[in-house]
Design brief:
The structure holds two protein chains of two kinds. Chain A is mostly helical. Chain A is built from five helices and two strands; from the N terminus they run ααββααα. Chain A has a two-stranded parallel ribbon. Residues about 1-10, about 125-140 and about 180-185 of chain A have low confidence and may be disordered. Chain B is globular. Classes of the chains: A mainly alpha, B mainly alpha. At the A-B interface, α2 and α4 of A face α4, α5, α7, α9 and α17 of B.
Amino acid sequence: MAGLGHSRGRGKGYMSFSIEAVGIGKGENLPPSILQPTPLFPPVEHKPVPLVMGEEAEYMLALKQEFRGNMKNLPFYVRPAVSKKDVERYSDKYQNSEPSDNTIEWNPDWKRLPKELRICVKKALKENTSLSVETTVDPKPRKKTRVDKEEIIHNLETLEEEVTSDEEEGEKKKQEEEQQDGEEEYDEEEFEEETDYIMSYFDNGEEFGGDSDDNMDEAVY
Amino acid sequence: MTEEPMRGNRRSFRHLPQNSTNSDVGPPAYQRGWSANIPSCNAQLFGKINLPVSAEIRCVVALAITCVWDSEVVLRGFSRNSFHDLKGCFAKHMTAQEVRLCGLLLQEHFGEVVERIGTHLLRGGAQNLRTIANETNTPLDLVKKSLCVLVQHGACEFGSGRRGPGSPVEYRASCERVLRVLRYPRYIYTAKTLYGDTGELIVEEVLQRGHMTMSNTVKTVADRLTHNMEEGRSMEYSEVVSAFSKLVETHFLQRCPPVAEMGTAATSTTPATPSTPAAPASTSPPTAESNPDCYKLPHVTLIGRGKRRRSSDDSEEQRGGKKAKMDSESCGDEGIYWLVNFERFHQHFRDQAIISAVASKLDQTSSEIVRTMLRMSEVTTTQTAAYTQPLSANEIFRSLPPNYSISRPILDQYLSLLVDDPMEFVGKSGDSGGGMYVVNLQRALANLARATLESVVQERFGSRSARIFRLLLRKRHLEQKQVEDFAMIPAKEAKDMLYTLLSENLVQLQEIPKTPDHAPSRTFYLYTVNQLPTARLLLQHCYKTVANLIERRLFETKENKRLLEKSQRIEAILASLQASGAEPEQLTEVEEMITAPERQQLEALRHHINKLDSTENQVDETVFLLESYIFSTKTK
């Protein structure tokens, strides 16, 4: 701001313009300069005009509050998943807890959304559920063919996203096929799908260490 | 608005040749910046400051230079500029106040997760999925869900990335669209006044869900209406369908634009500026209006009645719901989604504002004439037209409502009165057909905005400051002495008021140097008011006001959360007791669980929250006027 600081030493405080021109007379008392930010609630000299009251205003108020209330109950109100409690409880499977992260409670039109946003649609939990374990084996070869197809379509740059979206797409495919069958216990399979290991192969090591009680001199590898 | 020649004292400009540009006289552009039109100033500044710094530092630099806007920080949130050339709401500059308000609205309606994602998108421009997830530290699935919600409601759009069809999809949020949420009650109420309860529910449902198919809407609305009717009666689908068709015919509802294919070549080429050698492959998102079918109803026949929901039928309802879902799939209109056409509602509001202004300035009959003229030009006027198509007096006479039987000469007199009125709502554009008349929409909006500004100054600073403000609006540039003379206010007080207005940035100071060395003693200092920048300033104040109101309301709710929960619990107990037929003594016992002071506190709380909510609605009316005015000047 080179242009503005020319005049120097014209009496009280050099200002860049002649103070007579703006209207401050000579020797007049100026209010002291304030060196702090304006107060948070400045005093209001003039009271504001009262609000418009009437049928229309009240009706719109009711509309607004109802709308807000309704939005909170719709599936569009995204709540983050509740963090896992300290100990897994048996009742968790059957209690309708907060929605988990990787499901979506409403059914958008996936054709209008980019592929990468697909998440499986959550189905309502039913009370009398039956575990169908045999279907867990099927997605593996289906996954493979989908992986091949995906790699052709997507470029290398989207490879990262494929890794996570593959699992979900495989699940979604399975989901669509099972919709016609009727009730399925969904959570179990999803839980099992998240890990890379097939649950039936899991060996929780209870039998380990029972054999080699006799020969304690040998090293255990 | 056209620049009127300066009236009054012309001695200040005597030395200037008539058509001198300001470049050879006066301080350079960046110095003049502090009193000039701010948006163009910003553009100049940002054009010059091409440093590779982050957005925040750039804002600080801008803040130091544009000292007029001391309270707002203009965020130009993208260093990557590929979407920069695109016109439309997605390339807008967003101020901090707007982003804050958008954040609060998203939080109230969609939750905190969506708020975080939305605010991040608003601040940062177009980004892809990974970037959003990393920068907001949100799990990928929550990000996906939030983006689905935002796209569903039209607040976010996606397009292929900057680097061509192969790059990851990028998402952009629209500040303007999120701010519309504030106006939802007004849209719903307008639908009610125009099309009754059915129309109201249709618009409400579509607003709640973002976009819906026609069959889905019809069924949901029929069910809701049936629920409110007395026992044994239910709502026919056909009635709902007719209300829906009326809404579509009058363009209040429109089809969703078809989703642009990703990976195809850009259909609209953006002109490549010399500084960007690689032309971006992003297409401008297709608008709803670009679809020729956007107001065509699908050919579906929906026959049926609304179903009444009963609490005991929940399990049946689920199965019935599933059956209904399968029915809707066979309805024949999947893939055709409808959304609310906000621009059409805005047109309606604007017309309403003009008509009521005419009614209060002149009389009822004049307002009816203007209403007739506006109604006749509803379909022929484009959204951004400065004035309606010319209408002949004969046509107007024929189209007047039958209960307003005025004779032809009286109509002509009224029309000439309207034309002569200084507010210039109606103009005469020709003499054929008994006189061709237009409604000056742009001028009407400018006048309404000016009236708003004047009334704001009057309410905040008193009627004498308002007099000074009006004077400056009309006379453009005045010296200190002239202000005192014209406003007939003693010098000391006039000075005081001027300085107050100056400190609030409602009035600006313009330097006119007499000599090339800008000596202060030989420079004129003129006070001036520019309507457009002042309107923008007030609009930002309005956004800040609404954001403050929402925050205060959230604070009040949080403070009394315990009490509110207790009262909700007691109400639930009461309701269940009443349903199971309890005795009055039990009911009173339960009611007494809330003590009298608590009841008072609850009452006060409810009163406060209602007041805050109502205020938000009313500030939104001002926001609408100012936004319409600013938007109408942009499309010059």
